[in-house]
Amino acid sequence: MSAKEKAKAKAEQIVGKAVQKTAHVRGKRTTEAKGAALRLRGKARERKEKAKDFFKR
Predict the structure, then answer these.
(1) In angstroms, how far is the first alpha carbon of the chain from the final one?
(2) Which SS3 state, helix, strand or coil, does residue 2 take?
(3) Rounded to two decimals, what is the model's pTM?
(4) Distance (Å) of CA 57 to CA 18, 30, 47, 52, 53
(5) Pairwise CA distance, residues 20 & 37, whole Å
(6) CA–CA gap between residue 51 and residue 1 (Å, rounded)
(7) Residue-wise pLDDT tens for the chain (57 aa)?
(8) How far is CA 47 from CA 27, 32, 55, in A?
């Protein structure tokens, strides 16, 4: 996995989790859902890169 893509995936996960938690505390359900979506997008990106590495072997 390229370091750039790996960092991007982790950043999305961290930011998504922070947005989700902050929105939950403030009672903003739509923003909370957006944070969860961002977090899942980061996880999907990470899995995609790992799969690419697996099939490169």
Answers:
(1) 12
(2) coil
(3) 0.83
(4) 35, 42, 16, 9, 7
(5) 9
(6) 9
(7) 578 888 999 999 999 999 999 999 999 999 999 999 999 999 999 999 889 888 887
(8) 31, 23, 12
